[in-house]
Amino acid sequence: MSGRKQFDVDEALDKAMAVFWQRGYADASLDVLGTATGLGRGSLYGAFGGKDELFRRALDRYSATYGARYEDALTAHPGDPARAVEAFFGVVLARINDPAVPEGCLIAQAAAQSAVLTPESAAHVRRLLDIQQARVRAALDDPHADPSMLDDLAVYVVAINQSLAVLSRAGASDRELRAVVRFACETVASRLAPAN
């Protein structure tokens, strides 16, 4: 189309995702988002409907990218839920140690800022946490275990994941993060042991 600047929507989403991930929702102004994506306000609104919708789409892109990796890890060890959780945390640590992405986790960053999000975006963050919890819970499934204990264990694993993101942003060392993961994996294995 003549006269219209064309741009790659996925590339713009990746750049916006990095801004929200690094700065958080509150500090990701339209000017900062425009500079990062190379889009003016009009183009941002035209393509994404505004900052709030762009934020939710960036969250979805993040969730799809890392969710697929989590899913692969959690399903790679059928019948061995403790090993599946260990693989899940391996993916988490790989993301945290990836120098190509901001520290922490976009969803953890968004959850910490829930008070400044619109109700729609806060609910969206909660849904993404629920999806993560459902993935973990599916990996823990064991017909011989108490379902409510498995539900609680899934919440625990997701809480540890979010804690790792916060600790990494606060400068925790790799050794410290791996210690948290080791104790979490031991806890999961010990809670599952009576069922196996």
Provide an overview of this structure.
This is Transcriptional regulator, TetR family. Keywords: DNA-binding, Transcription, Transcription regulation. Residues 29-48 bind DNA. The structure is a single chain. This protein has 196 residues and is mainly alpha-helical. The protein has a single domain (51-195), classed as Orthogonal Bundle (Tetracycline Repressor, domain 2), CATH 1.10.357. It is built from 9 helices and no strands. It has helices at 9-23, 30-37, 41-48, 51-75, 81-96, 106-112, 119-140, 147-169, 174-192. Helix 1 crosses helix 6 (106-112), helix 7 (119-140) packs across helix 8 and helix 8 runs antiparallel to helix 9. The radius of gyration is 19 Å and the shape is elongated. It starts with 8 loop residues before the first helix and ends with a helix. The model has no long low-confidence stretch (mean pLDDT 92).
Set out the fold topology.
Elements: H1 9-23, H2 30-37, H3 41-48, H4 51-75, H5 81-96, H6 106-112, H7 119-140, H8 147-169, H9 174-192
Helix pairs in contact: 1-2, 1-4, 1-6, 4-5, 4-7, 5-8, 5-9, 7-8, 8-9
